[in-house]
Amino acid sequence: MSPVLGCIADDHTGGSDIAAALRRAGMRTVLRFGVPGERAGVPDCDAVVVALKTRSIPAPDAVAQTLAAQRWLAALGVPRFYFKYCSTFDSTDAGNIGPVADALLSLLGGRTLICPASPEHGRTTYLGHLFVGDVLLSDSPMRHHPLTPMTDANLVRVLGRQTPHPVGLLPLTAVRRGPAFVQEHLDGLDVRHVVADATEEADLLALARATSDWPLLTGGAGLAGAIARVAVPEAARAAEIVPLPPGPGVILAGSCSAATLGQLDQALARFPGHRLDPVATPVPAELAAVAVEWLERNLGDGPVVLYSSAPAEQRATGPRIAEVLEETLGLLARRAVELGVRRIAVAGGETSGAVTTALGVDQVVVGDEADRGVPWCVTTTDDPVALLLKSGNFGRPDLLVRAMDGATR
Ligand SMILES: Nc1ncnc2c1ncn2[C@@H]1O[C@H](COP(=O)(O)OP(=O)(O)OP(=O)(O)O)[C@@H](O)[C@H]1O
Ligand SMILES: O=C(O)[C@@H](O)C(=O)CO
């Protein structure tokens, strides 16, 4: 049987977040990293997530990679697609949410919802405005994001700058009046992109029910989880147990989000840490060499922390900084595995992409979550490595400390 749902995530932590939501709803889920080779197959499963690293690359490249992933999923016989982006709508006026959604719609036809709301992560949308906890997106720490600063919370307006097509709104009052009214409201909108309000799980379920025959939906892990809950009967919801390999642990942190900085504080109070300074040493091989020397000296019985994360005022600036740090953290991940590390907690979506790419990991089994949306992912190789790919904003303050004990929720 072919998988019933094919998801394309624009970064690796987003991929693990949506995979966790699908698994939690009872879908047997496979998570792949990067555009799969034409011949790549998947084990028997209900959903496949292809996690790309397309959030912050030029829009034409993001479109090309997404369409290649969609072609591969379609060749598996997948009938429905989901484009997963960040619940904080991370993007710029150049893209990539609008251009990617447009390209997928040109191929699949019809219209789509734009629904980043993930109430379980504190992301809600009301009258098209995205809230993070109890503040507007534009008042949240996302306004200082190093790659995709979000300074406008009105998603109709934000997406309107990324697509030549008009953008509509499905307001909460309509969502709450039931599927028939949602349908009526949508019929009255002559647009292909509809920003959909949702502040509770029940709203996401209503949206999933009202659009169950749409070939493409887009949003955060919240709506995808609702689609899975609508598709899988409650009695059939049993999550697969995935054991973690034993071995020392390392934390690799490149995320500069407020949540990561708090989690790092706790981890650094418990474990030895080494800070990467890309200004003093702007060449990845050299920056990594100093850190490897530190790693070899400090990787004993307990976990260690390698990080570049910094609050906005201490961050390095320059066109190549992110690239230098991501390459360096990738090199360090490789060396850590050579040194016997079997548990790696990575903080940050771009950073996770760099680490999985450097480790050559193309497929993992998704296991239990250490925190909501942060599952353990175990490679399917003979000598498996467990990866915890943490979205910048996710997790309780002690997540990184608990992760080093292989903790689950
Ligand atoms: N000290 C620093 N100065 C400047 N840039 C940094 C610094 N440390 C990390 N970065 C870069 O900031 C970016 C952080 O993005 P990343 O996606 O890894 O984290 P995030 O945005 O918090 O997570 P997510 O995308 O999951 O929300 C990376 O490209 C990283 O290399
Ligand atoms: O949706 C989210 O917030 C996360 O899955 C994510 O994409 C962060 O990179």
UniProtKB/TrEMBL annotation:
GO MF terms listed in the record are: ATP binding; kinase activity
Report the residue ranges that make up the Four-carbon acid sugar kinase nucleotide binding domain in this protein. 250-400
Asked if the Swiss-Prot or TrEMBL record annotates the protein with the keyword Lipoprotein, the reply is no
| Protein name from the UniProt record | 3-oxo-tetronate kinase
Does the record carry Kinase as a key word? yes
Reaction(s) catalysed by this chain's protein: 3-dehydro-D-erythronate + ATP = 3-dehydro-4-O-phospho-D-erythronate + ADP + H(+); 3-dehydro-L-erythronate + ATP = 3-dehydro-4-O-phospho-L-erythronate + ADP + H(+)
Which controlled-vocabulary keywords does the entry list?
ATP-binding, Carbohydrate metabolism, Kinase, Nucleotide-binding, Transferase
Q: Which family does it belong to?
A: Belongs to the four-carbon acid sugar kinase family.
- Function of the molecule: Catalyzes the ATP-dependent phosphorylation of 3-oxo-tetronate to 3-oxo-tetronate 4-phosphate.
Q: Which residues form the Four-carbon acid sugar kinase N-terminal domain?
A: 5-226
Organism the protein comes from: Amycolatopsis thermoflava
Q: What is its EC number?
A: 2.7.1.217
| Pfam families (alphabetical) | NBD_C, SBD_N
Recorded hits in InterPro entries, A to Z, give: 4-carb_acid_sugar_kinase_N, 4-carb_acid_sugar_kinase_N_sf, NBD_C, NBD_C_sf, OtnK
UniProt cross-references to NCBIfam families, sorted A to Z: OxoTetrKin
> How would you classify this enzyme at the top EC level?
transferase
Organism superkingdom = Bacteria
